[in-house]
Write a structure and sequence with these properties.
alpha+beta; Gyrase A, domain 2; Elongation Factor Tu (Ef-tu), domain 3; Aspartate Aminotransferase, domain 2; 7-stranded mixed beta sheet; 22 helices; 36 strands; 22% strand; globular
Length: 883
């Protein structure tokens, strides 16, 4: 039997050695499979996976060869990425499943199953003859492979490699190349356990033992232990991951299991034109057609997908094993392919602040190959040895969406919830009572530091309640009737006149010529622009299918980008799918290594030149610095086909001016924004432009107006529009003093927090911030807990994933904004005092909610609006004459 370089270590440290795929490997250590499974889920497990085959594919035709022999689209990979893929035969069955890693432009590593290594090698040797400029090498004996999986895995690697930037970018399937003791090591965010924090390391053979032992020494402080193949198998089963010989290969009757019978395979099969006639393509297309019919619950012949792999949760005592029959009533529908009793950790509650406990549970689960028309929630019976087990078809057994932990998905019994009938009058009374309580708490007892929120002035709030709040005033310019706006309702002269004044005042504030105020949110503002750009792009062709934007450049969501500027947000229906990557055609701004809150302009210039985007979107929701509008403008002005330069200023709209930045002076084409974050208004949005009539750009502006109405709005919420006019008057009258104080307060707050012992994100040379935001780093995955503790003490912030966090549930950050409390009169010394209170709550673990409420009591009168002696008579008139 073959042995990995760690064989002697395993034996010396209690490894129970067994034969697996021709290798002598540890099935478990003295801790046992169950404990290794549980420890991986709670802390982490270190696995020797050097028995897996590692083939290096290089040369000019490396990609062509991989496109031919693998089911996935190898051309979609960029350097530093990996993908799950399958080695198919002509019949659409799997020779093996595998993982492909792209190290550089023409160098790949393909990892295959240990038991199939020789078979895969022989198959590739036959195929590579068609590709004389591709080279295939088996480096399984030269390069070892380790897997570090679990919640504490990243902490261990950060200590070993000393710098988080040496690890792969956040996001599954990313990889990085770094060094360990002067030798190259490849680290990828991949694994076979279902853990959201998963890493696999490709290590030179001679450094393997040293790195393994160092990982365990460092890992010991985090309770990480070595784990064997037994735990690896139970972990992959719980994660619904297939294993060759079980979910792939042949069934009980000796028939080949089709590739697309496995749920995960749909992410591993591509029919991109770039792949050409790859092996098994036609068979897989037939499978895919039936898969779509099945997924859409249409009648299906089931010729190519008679059965599919499905997850079954077993509700009675007992374990299902490979080969056990699965029945619906007395009808045999298939067989179990993998099954076991699996232990799991319980959490103390649901939600983002839930914590893993010391309490364990046990459940019986399996993966079965059953009639492909069987639906989720179908009850089934499994005929195990000597007993019948009751089960139910489930979507999956495990969730990895809330790092740092994976979480067990248990089948919940449906409980009937009977709500007490209190009667509508009492419900109305309770609604008012609770609304008043909430209002008093947020407005008089709480320090509000959410950076996307603002309390409007009393005048603004009362104006939003006036008669226009229940009216319509749709209007449009119709050339045949002149250049004026034509209303579609009577009784609208007043509000249309006020809308015109709003446009004039907002244009004055922003320093631009055009403003579209009818959009009712920042998200809708962005969507209006995206739709208008698609409309403009297709202006000459009104008969064929609309072409979407060919390529868009924006900030990555995990690095502070706006949700509404993402393909999963407002951009969703307006950007093409890249024919190479088969993903939305979006490229992200690269960030500076020493300051992830700033754009790397040199690399950005190269990306713009390479990709030539049609739209560039600046603006972030986690924003500490002005955006480099002028610098990007300079780059795009050298291009023949200039992209639209858009700035989503949702967070910083109220800071536009000499103390922050003036986007139109710096070269922005379009500005969008929310009117209720740093701006003084109620919750709405705006689109603004500075385009000269008669130019191509002005045609874009006309498309934006058409999209605002009738494309995106009908009723454009006239009550809040009226309030926004008053807010814009306030901004034009008091805005400069407010802006200066906001930025000064933010810098003072940041410095005071640092002096109190907190880690403050950003550049210390500019006092950590140049906006209203201050971002704290309170420790990996501690953000939600700390935010909740602050809320219990009447300080409201929002937990925030920093650029190196995997997601919101593993947030290290607290995102704070000083804009609202600045408006309530807080100055630099007050924010310094607040930093001291936060130290008492977070670091000293004190409960001081009453003290915070007393402190807030000093700041209940709003500034930067009409003083009370002028505003109160106006408010009384509104109330007296209208209510």
């Amino acid at each position: 039997m073959k042995k990995t370089i760690l064989h002697d270590w395993h034996k010396k440290h209690g490894g129970d050695m067994v034969e697996f795929g021709g290798w002598e490997m540890p099935i478990r250590y003295e801790t046992g499979i169950i404990q290794e499974h549980l420890t991986t889920r709670k802390y982490g497990g270190l696995f020797d996976v050097s028995h897996m085959g590692r083939f290096f594919i290089t040369g000019e035709q490396a990609t062509d060869f991989l496109q031919h022999v693998l089911t996935n689209n190898a051309a979609a990979l960029e350097t530093g990425q990996s993908q799950y893929t399958i080695i198919s035969n002509e019949n659409g069955g799997a020779i093996d499943d595998s993982y492909l890693y792209k190290i550089n432009q023409s160098d790949f590593i393909l990892v295959v199953n240990a038991s199939n290594r020789e078979k895969d090698w022989e198959w590739f040797q036959k195929q590579i003859k068609q590709f004389p400029k591709a080279r295939l090498e088996d480096k399984s004996e030269v390069i070892s492979m380790l897997a570090l999986q679990g919640p504490k895995a990243k902490s261990v690697l950060e200590e070993i490699f000393q710098d988080v930037t040496e690890l792969p970018d956040v996001g599954r399937n990313n990889l990085s190349v770094t060094e360990f003791e002067s030798e190259q090591v490849i680290i990828s965010r991949t694994g076979y356990t279902g853990e959201p924090l998963c890493f696999e390391l490709f290590v030179p053979r001679e450094k393997t033992v040293t790195l393994w032992e160092k990982a365990l020494r460092v890992g010991k402080r985090h309770n990480i232990i070595p784990a064997g193949l037994g735990a690896r198998d139970s972990l992959r089963l719980e994660a619904d991951l297939p294993l060759y010989g079980h979910e792939f290969g042949e069934d009980k009757e000796g028939k080949e299991i089709p590739i697309l019978a496995i749920p995960l395979a749909k992410y591993a099969v591509s029919f991109s034109r770039l792949k050409g006639q790859f092996i098994g393509k036609q068979a897989l297309k037939r499978q895919f057609r039936e898969l779509k019919q099945l997924e859409n619950k249409r009648k299906c012949a089931k010729r190519y997908l008679p059965k599919r792999i499905m997850s079954i949760a077993i509700s009675t005592i007992g374990a299902a094993r490979q080969g056990d029959g699965v029945y619906i009533n007395d009808r045999l529908i298939g067989e179990v392919r993998s099954g076991s009793m699996v232990s799991y950790w319980k959490f103390d509650k649901e939600g983002v602040t839930s914590h893993i406990t010391e309490e364990k549970g046990k459940r019986s689960i399996c993966l079965a190959y059953i009639d492909s028309e069987t639906e989720e929630n179908q009850e089934v019976q499994i005929h195990a040895k000597g007993r019948i087990l009751e089960g139910i078809i489930v979507e999956r057994h495990l969730s990895s969406e809330a790092p740092p932990y994976s979480r067990t998905i248990l089948v919940k019994k449906r409980e009937k919830h009977v709500e007490e009938d209190k009667g509508l009058p009492l419900l109305m009374e309770n609604l008012v009572k609770e609304t008043v309580e909430n209002h008093v708490w947020r407005q008089k007892k709480t320090i509000n530091l959410i950076p996307s929120e603002q309390t409007p002035s009393k005048l603004v709030r009362f104006l939003t309640l006036m008669d226009p709040s229940g009216r319509y005033a749709e209007h449009k310019i119709i050339e045949a009737l002149g250049e004026s706006e034509i209303p579609f309702y009577q009784g609208t002269e007043f509000i249309i006149r006020k809308e015109g004044l709003l446009i004039k005042e907002m244009a004055k504030f922003l320093g631009c010529s055009q403003v579209e105020p009818r959009v009712i949110s920042g998200q809708q503002a962005n969507k209006t622009v995206f739709s208008a750009l698609v409309d403009y792009k297709n202006r000459l062709d009104k008969k064929t299918e609309l072409q979407r934007l060919r390529k868009v450049m924006n900030h990555h969501l995990g690095k502070g980008g706006h949700l509404s500027a993402q393909p999963l947000g407002a951009l969703r229906h307006y950007v093409m799918r890249d024919p190479v990557t088969e993903k939305p055609a979006v490229i992200n701004f690269p960030i500076q290594k020493d300051n992830p809150y700033k754009i790397d302009l040199e690399e950005t210039a190269q990306l713009i030149d390479d990709h030539k985007p049609e739209l560039i979107i600046l603006g972030k929701s986690m924003v500490l610095h002005p955006e480099p509008v002028a610098e990007i403008r300079k780059i795009v002005d050298t291009m023949e086909d200039k992209p639209i330069l858009m700035y989503d200023m949702a967070h910083v709209l109220g800071l536009v001016g000499p103390y922050f930045q003036e986007p139109f002076k710096e070269g922005a084409d379009i500005v969008t924004g929310s009117t209720h974050k740093t701006f003084f208004g109620p919750q709405r949005g705006i689109v603004a432009g500075n385009m000269e009539e008669g130019t191509k750009e002005y045609e874009v502006w006309e498309a934006i107006q058409r999209e605002a109405f009738p494309g995106s709005t009908s009723n454009h919420h006239l009550g809040t529009l009226l309030g926004l006019l008053m807010a814009t008057y306030e901004m034009n009258l008091y805005g400069r003093a407010y802006q200066k104080q906001v930025i000064s307060n933010a810098k003072a707050f940041a410095k005071a927090l640092r002096d109190s012992g907190f880690t403050v994100e950003g550049d210390p040379d500019v006092s950590y911030t140049e906006t209203h935001q201050v971002i704290l780093n309170v420790g990996y995955a501690k953000g939600a807990d700390v935010a909740e503790r602050l809320e219990r003490n009447n300080i409201v912030v929002n937990y925030q994933a920093t650029p190196y966090d995997e997601g919101f549930s593993s947030s290290s950050g607290l995102r704070t904004g000083v804009q609202e409390m600045t408006r309530f009169g807080m100055k630099e010394k007050d924010f310094e005092k607040l930093a001291g209170y936060m130290k008492e709550i977070i670091q000293d673990n004190k409960h001081i909610s009453k003290q915070i409420s007393r402190f807030r009591g000093n700041f209940t009168e709003m500034a930067y609006c009409l003083p009370e002696e002028k505003s109160e008579p106006l408010i009384k008139k509104l109330l007296r004459d209208t209510l």
